[in-house]
Design a protein that fits this description.
By secondary structure, the chain is of the alpha+beta class. The protein has five helices and twelve strands. It starts with a helix and ends with a helix.
Length: 222
């Protein structure tokens, strides 16, 4: 990638960082969905945040819930409530059943360490779990991505699964596999996965920008 293209990409990413909430895909706590209250155009979720530190969380802040960026509308002790639109519910999974475990991450501050990769909290699609089995001390997770997203999944690239930043080990068509270390399984809701289940997927932000830059360059050359 040439110098001008690298500068353009960096400028777009920095603009995104300043104009939207961002996450790293490093889960801070595993909470539980304790109530779902219907609203006119969606639902209000009550999430028991478990061990999540809420000392610096205020009304209006963003928290990723299993990869879905939601706005805090009420805090009641360890219970945090979020309003979710019907559109969001229709294009995600895991936010529709009381008792579900929820991966939680507070939005990044610019001074925070980026332990995973840049995550927006905007789910791109729902994947299907094909395989989740122990392999030695770790687990192998195989997911089938929607065809529209498969082209963004690359070997050794990053992808977000239920809000967890993970590295892709292998890609075959629309299917990709991931190795989960014991720590990741223990502290996230990925331990609940089984073949036939569904997961929220968010593709790598950089891949999205690179595709747009290439498309724009091709359009401009016509």
């Amino acid at each position: 990638m040439g110098r001008d293209r690298r500068f353009a990409l960096q400028s777009r990413v920095l603009h995104f960082l300043h104009s939207a909430d961002m996450f790293s895909g490093i889960v801070a706590a595993c909470g539980r969905l304790v109530a779902i209250d219907p609203r006119q155009d969606g639902v209000r979720l009550s999430v028991d945040t478990g061990g999540l530190d809420l000392d610096d969380v205020a009304i209006g802040d963003s928290i990723a819930n299993s990869g879905v960026c939601l706005t805090v509308i009420e805090i009641d002790g360890a219970i945090v409530r979020f309003d979710v639109s019907r559109e969001t519910l229709d294009c995600t999974t895991g936010l529709d059943r009381v008792g579900n475990e929820i991966n939680l991450e507070k939005a990044l501050r610019l001074a925070d360490r980026l332990g995973g990769h840049l995550v927006t909290g905007h789910v791109d699609g729902v994947g299907e779990v094909l395989r989740f089995v122990p392999v030695g001390e770790s687990h192998e997770l195989v997911i089938r991505a929607p065809r529209a997203l498969a082209g963004y999944v690359a070997r050794k690239g990053s992808i977000t699964v239920n809000g967890v930043s993970l590295t892709v080990n292998r890609v075959e068509g629309t299917d990709f596999s991931i190795n989960l270390i014991p720590h990741t399984v223990a502290v996230t809701n990925l331990k609940q996965l089984a073949a036939g289940g569904q997961v929220n997927l968010e593709i790598d932000l950089i891949a999205r920008y690179v595709e747009r830059m290439q498309a724009w360059r091709a359009e401009s050359a016509q």
